[in-house]
Amino acid sequence: MDVFVCAGCEAPLSAPVFRVALPVHAHHSSWHELLPPLMEQGTYAVDPLPSGPPYRRRQEIEEDEAAARGVYAPEYSVSFGAAGRIALAPGDSRGTVLIPERCDGYCVGLDGRDGPNLACERCASAVGTRVDDCGMWQAVWLEPGAVRRVASVGGPAPVDPVPGVRPRPPVEPGGGWDGRWVAAVAVALAHLVVAAEGDPVTFPAGGLLAETFARGADAVLPMGPVRKSVGLAGPGVPVSGHDIALVPRDPVTGEPWRPSADVPVAPLSAEVWAYLAEPPETSPLPASGTLPPGVLRDDYPLPPHPAYTFEMDRRIFLHTLARHPAVRRPRIRAVYDRVLAGRNQLWL
Q1: What is the pLDDT of residues 283-319, one digit of tens each?
Q2: Which tens digits make up the pLDDT trace of 55-104?
Q3: Residue extents of the structural domains in the chain
Q4: Distance (Å, rounded) from C-alpha 103 to C-alpha 148?
Q5: Is 291 helix (H, G, I), strand (E, B) or coil?
Q6: Model's pTM, two decimal places?
Q7: Where are the alpha helices (H) located in 102-164, listed in sequence order?
Q8: Pairwise CA distance, residues 171 & 177, whole Å
Q9: Which CATH number describes the domain made up of 2-48+84-151?
Q10: Please, what's the largest Cα pairwise distance for the chain?
Q11: Count of beta carbons in the 10 Å neighbourhood of residue 60
């Protein structure tokens, strides 16, 4: 467990927290919707790439300069914020106060457009940014140059807050697709394009995997008579002869699971992968015993059903692919350019 302190005065700025992988949806919004905290309580994550303001328009900087900031394909703007910003759940921040003149936002909250809006309560140094505007994942982002990480000492022995992966259902109670699923599929599809080397792909028919991936894959990849097969692989799920494996990201390190077979892999958010690999039981069976012959049970809850077709998020797909070094290969760049130029109604 770690604690973050002010680099200037050593005042504690966080509760004891455990490092996990940065969620793939960290920098993606959901329009006018109140979103929950980005991080689970008791955890933190580090963004390895530059993020946040200031931004510079892509045509104002050289290609090598953009690549040095992790952007390998044209985008409207490139972040010149710090790399290594630390994401916390708002409830895990300590000893900070808002900077009133930097508390602007788009709608009803703070979006960090003016730079760090949190100051150390003891020495008044700017140390981080609170983000909670509508459509944004609520978080406190600590600036790497303004804070220091120290090991937590004293108190009870820490308990690992991520003992296992909890499958995340794809559909919200209101019938909409969960935004974390939308982001996870778009990110995984960008990696899938690289794993397939720009070739068309196919998925097992009739399941949730095809329902969430196939339409987007058909839209971004070229049509062709020969398609590479894609299937799930991971702990307890063998590759089973597929050409490409969709594998879970380690929830702590963020690294993709590696199968023993020599096949290309595309990483997928672990909680989404877990649901695809083993959906929850929904069969109408009594808690014990069996139903009498001829009796039908109709009081069991039906699984949530989406109110509309799954749509891949074009912005997240492009954002991810632009930050993959393989986008500099001609075939992968052709996919990127085609999607960037397209105005297909499939995408948000």
Answers
A1: 555 556 666 777 666 666 667 788 899 999 999 999 9
A2: 999 889 999 999 999 999 999 999 999 999 999 999 999 999 999 999 98
A3: 2-48+84-151, 179-279+303-341
A4: 24
A5: coil
A6: 0.88
A7: none
A8: 5
A9: 2.170.150
A10: 75
A11: 9
